[in-house]
Amino acid sequence: MRIPSSWRRWCLSGASVLGIAFLVSCSAAGKDGDADSSGKGSPSASRSSSDAQDPYPGDDKGARALMETLGEDGGTGLVRSLRPTAADYRALFQPDFAGQAEAFYEDSLWGTSPQPPRPWARYGQTELRMWKATTDEIRAWTPVVRSNFPGGYAQVKDRFRAGLTVYTWDYTKPGAERGMAYNGLVYVNGHWAFIPKPWYVLRK
User: What range does the record give for the signal peptide (predicted)?
Assistant: First the structure.
């Protein structure tokens, strides 16, 4: 597996926010404020958790399967299927923040074209580690959340609505402590959506 050079440049861009640079950073799996732990189209209709043929049901098994596919071959169609709808933002965030988040991600993430059809893991990163927390746990900023989620979530913890589960994960080489790290995968309104690093909304 190879991560494209353009994504590597995004990962190393520091404070520069170009396209989805900051959203899919290759920061280490540390838990500080900016480190991760662990075209427009509607989401695929096949993402229903009630569909027995769905390869990515809305549970831990489906989350892991989706992460594995992204790591091995993050194709454009699959990535675009993770584009949240306006209703998804409203379901995940408090009303005053939902609109800000939608505008921010549409401009900085989904407004870029196209999402590169490449794996999200670097060559040799064959191990996948996954963590999760409910939005209630994020709001309470529990020890589990502090240990497994980027510290930036503390800045927006009160913006979450109750009742959903957010996942964070990383791809590492066997035995390595750090690798390509991501966060913000959530099953909402019957499909998976990718809403990473929500604290960046506050920086706009």
Answer: 1-30
Number of structural domains (the chain) is 1
For residue 126, what is the DSSP state? -
Q: What angle do CA 159, 88, 195 make, to 5 degrees?
A: 65
* Residues 157-186: tens digit of each pLDDT: 999 999 999 999 999 999 999 999 999 999
* 120 closest CA partner among 51, 23, 14, 35: 23
Helix H, strand E, coil C: the string for 13-36 is: CCCCCCCCCCCCCCCCCCCCCCCC
Helices (H), the chain: 5-11, 60-73, 76-80, 86-92, 95-108, 135-140, 143-148, 153-156
Residue 192's alpha-carbon distances to 41, 44, 122, in angstroms, are 13, 9, 23
Indicate the SS3 state at residue 52: coil
Closest CA to 20 of 32, 29, 11: 11
Query: C-alpha 119: how far from its chain's center?
Result: 14
**Rounded CA gap, 95 and 159, in Å?**
9
Which pTM value belongs to this model?
0.75
Count CB-CB contacts under 10 A for residue 151.
15
69 and 44 Cβ atoms separated by less than 8 Å = no
Q: What does the buried/exposed string (b/e) look like for 111-137 if buried means 16 or more CB atoms within 10 Å of the residue's CB?
A: eeeebbebbbbbeebeebbbbbbbbeb
pLDDT for the residue numbered 111: 82
